[in-house]
Amino acid sequence: MRNKSFRQFAPALTALLALTPVIQADELTQLRDQLHALEQKLLVLERKQEIKDEAAAAAAPATPKVTISDKGYTLASADGANSIKLRGLVQLDSRLFLNDGNVLANNSFILRRARIISEGTFAQNFSFQVVPEFGGGSPAIVDANLNWTVTPALQFKFGRFKSPVGLELLQSDSWTFFDERSIVTNLVPNRDLGVLVSGDVLGGKLNYTAGIVGGGADGAQTTNSDFDNEKDLVGRLWASPFKDDAGSFTQGLSFGVSGTYGREKTAAGRTGGYRTDGQQTFYSYLATTSTDGPNWRVSPQLDYRTGSFGLLSEYVVSAVNVRTSAAGKLTELQNKAWQLAAGYVLTGENSSYAGVVPANNFDLSKGTWGAFELAARYAKLKVDDAAFPLYASPAASAGEATSFGVGLNWYLSKTVRFTFDYYQTKFGAAPGAPAALTNAVIRQDEKSVITRFQISF
Prior knowledge:
Elements: H1 5-18, H2 25-59, E1 65-69, E2 72-76, E3 83-98, E4 108-122, E5 126-133, E6 140-151, E7 154-162, H3 167-170, E8 191-201, E9 206-213, E10 232-239, E11 253-266, E12 274-275, E13 281-283, E14 290-306, E15 309-323, E16 331-345, E17 371-382, E18 400-411, E19 416-428, E20 446-456
Antiparallel strand pairs: 1-2, 2-3, 3-4, 3-20, 4-5, 5-6, 6-7, 7-8, 8-9, 9-10, 10-11, 11-14, 12-13, 14-15, 15-16, 16-17, 17-18, 18-19, 19-20
C-alpha cells in the first residue's frame, strides 16, 4: 500500500510558504520543485516495493514445503497436490523360551523388521507405496502398489498389498497389542498381487473392499508373480454405524466380515505351516499333500474403543481342498480359529487401532514417562480332524493350539515403543498321535518371553 502521508502534508506546506512574506518568489518556486521531485522519488520507491511483493506472491505457489515430524519426512508442493514421504520401521526382538530343556536352542536376538518406506502423491488423486524389508532373512519387497482415488467412495489399488481379510493382520505392524499377531492370523492370507476397489460410503460409516488377487495359502505371501493360473475373489465390509454419536458408549464400535473364494492347485496352494506366538511351527502338511479345488475363507470381526480401553476380536474359518496325489481322493478340510484381545492404557491416553499417542513423551528432566498399556489375549486354533493321518502327520503336528498372552507396552513417544510379552501355548494331540512325538515343539507347552525395542515414524 502506498504511503500518502507526505503527499497530504505537501499542499499544506506549500500554502504556508505562500503566506510567508519573507520568502521570495524564486525561493518558493525552488521549494515547490524540490517537493515535486521528492514526491516522484517516493512514487518510484513505492512501485519498486509493489513489484517485489508481486514477484514474491507469484513465486510462493512454486516453493515446496518440507515437513519433518513423527509421521516421517515429507517434501510437498505448496498446494499439496504432489508429495514424497519417507518413513521407517525398525524392530529388534529378544526371544526367550522357558522350560524347553534347551532342546530347541532358539533363545536369540532377531532383527524382526527393518524397513525404509517410500510413499508419494501426484495430482492429488494418484499415490504409491513401496516397502522393502531388510529384516529377517534376505531382503524382499513387502508392499509395492499404486492407488487411484476417483472419489472417497471409489478407489483402486494395483500391485502388492495386504489381503483384506484378517483384522489384526490389516493393523499396522507397529501398533498391535502384542509383538506377534495371534495364531488366528495363520488362517488368513498375508500379502498378495492383484487389483482392489474400495471406498467409504454412507458418510464414512461403511467401508467396502472387493478385488481379484493371485490367491495364496493360509499365512502365505506371494512372490512377485503368480504360482498358477487360478485367481481368488476377496471382499470385506467394515461398518462404524455410531462414529458420529459423540459421547455415546457405542461410538467406538466397528464390526464387519471378510472372505475369499478361489481355486488353488499344487503344493504351493497349501500352508507352509501354522506357527505359535513364539514363531515355532506346530502344524504342517505332508510333502505329498497338494491342493486342488475351491478354497474359501470367512471371517467375522470386531473392534471396539472407548477412552483408554480397546478390544479386538475375530473368527476365521479356512477351507482347503487337498489330495495325497494327482489321482488321490479330494477332501475338504476346514480349519478354524478365534481370538479375543484387549488393552488398557494405564496413563489415561486413548486406545486406538492406529496406536497410542503419549500425552507426554519420556523425559527424565521433566519427570514424564510416556504412556503405558496393559494387554491380554486368548486365542485358539483347531485343525480339521480329517487332516490326519493322510494329509498331516499326527506325530509331527498338533491337532489344536490354545494360546494365552499378557503384555506391557511402553510408549516413550509416538515413534519409540518398548514391549514385554509373555505367551503360553498348550497343544492338543492330533487323532491317532503316538506317545512319542517327533516334533519337539509340541511335546510340552510353549512358554515364551518376547521383548521388543521399536522405532516407527
